[in-house]
């Protein structure tokens, strides 16, 4: 009957089932936390910075055109760093048990704010390994580029290093829990909405008030079956009248047997 | 004497307005009484029908308890079991059902001799009587109009308990002849669509719907407030 979406009704339903929604949300948060801390493997990230300077001719006339050229070249270097030409060497040097493909996926090369500095990041389940790969890649790149591009102006600005207690970049428990909370909230609200749609019985005074032409006269709550009788029935009145009415009680049994049905 | 003992044992569950006048439910019936009185101003005697969309929503229990709380005010009340297909009133009050409404509708017997004392002051009862083969036809006869007129002269409140409105036509006929109709709804059980259908049926019968009584309504804080308030001053 009532097919239109009613915001007020929706909010009331939410309020009525807020316990369910909170419970579902909490469940999702706990699940995210457990998954973050136990199931998901931590991933560490090591970054090394490389400075690339393309000034081969001379140090004079350092104009903007040169910088533009440099920036374009940096784009080329970015591709080169992730290419098999470099990474295959890295794998060989470090005796890694993986392919160029998987290493490429774990390697990111960024140009830091249009500067000539390139940052090379490697992700790995071990911090030491990540540092090692990052530094080796930088070193291999430094060597190889001289033959490829006939330049020798690549210098390592900041080598990756292992800090005292490295923090994994993934999983981020707080972030995962936040996502869990949002998903849980939406999920709980979805369940509430479905339950609300499924129940077609009259459950509250509002359900009646929504029907045009009907109003509430009152409600009657179920009587506690343990309730003691406060007041005994006074039957004297009836006994007197029944004497006049005749011997009806004898016939009562017959009447009770006659049962109709709708 | 044996019958009396049985009465004492069976009555408490249903007639809570009588057995537990201080209970929450009794107070709730009194609230409904007030609301009905406000809904029907200017009537010397009020003829009210209690019905519901489907069976077992609490029509008879509501009607009986309402009759008790109306009688409490000192007015003369007649409670009639107009459910001639599945009568219950005689069982609620543990009385016989050999004489009642059906007899009066076929003009057998007089109203005054047919009503029975309930054992409660100011409250008289009229059973359904022998189950007739044609209850709807009986109710449609002029005899009912005449009977209601006679009852108006003798009682302040005439309450009809009736069959479910969606099952048989009896309640529609009665609703048309009563001053007002109370629709009893079983909270959590009655379908919204059924209640709307019942409302539409009553509208077709040109009945005046006084309102809805939500039966089996879950307790909330307000109820406890009433209860505490009440017991504090009694």
TrEMBL record, chain A:
Topological type in the membrane: Multi-pass membrane protein
Task: Read off the InterPro entries from this record.
Answer: Bact_polysacc_biosynth/exp, GNVR, LPS_length_determ_N
Per the record, its GO cellular-component terms are:
plasma membrane
- Keyword Membrane listed: yes
The Tyrosine-protein kinase G-rich domain extends over 139-194
From the UniProt record, list the coiled-coil ranges: none
Please classify the protein's predominant subcellular localization into one broad category: membrane
One of the record's GO molecular function terms: protein tyrosine kinase activity
Protein's cellular compartments: Cell membrane
Q: Which residues are in the Polysaccharide chain length determinant N-terminal domain?
A: 4-94
Parts of the chain that traverse the membrane? 174-195
Q: Which UniProt keywords apply?
A: Cell membrane, Membrane, Transmembrane, Transmembrane helix
Q: Which domain of life is it from?
A: Bacteria
**Keyword Oxidoreductase on this protein?**
no
The UniProt entry's sequence similarity note says: Belongs to the CpsC/CapA family.
This chain's protein is named Chain length determinant family protein
Taxonomic source organism: Planococcus antarcticus DSM 14505
TrEMBL record, chain B:
User: What CDD domains is this protein classified in?
Assistant: BY-kinase
Q: Spell out the PANTHER family in the cross-references.
A: FERRIC ENTEROBACTIN TRANSPORT PROTEIN FEPE, TYROSINE-PROTEIN KINASE
Which residue range or ranges hold the AAA domain?
57-176
Give the EC number(s) under which this enzyme is classified. 2.7.10.2
User: What is stated as this protein's family in its record?
Assistant: Belongs to the CpsD/CapB family.
> What is the protein name stated in its UniProt record?
non-specific protein-tyrosine kinase
Q: Coiled coil where?
A: none
The answer on whether this UniProt entry bears the keyword Kinase reads yes
* MF (Gene Ontology): ATP binding; identical protein binding; non-membrane spanning protein tyrosine kinase activity
**Which reactions appear under catalytic activity for this entry?**
L-tyrosyl-[protein] + ATP = O-phospho-L-tyrosyl-[protein] + ADP + H(+)
What do the Gene Ontology cellular component annotations say? plasma membrane
Keywords attached to this Swiss-Prot or TrEMBL record, sorted alphabetically, are:
ATP-binding, Kinase, Nucleotide-binding, Transferase, Tyrosine-protein kinase
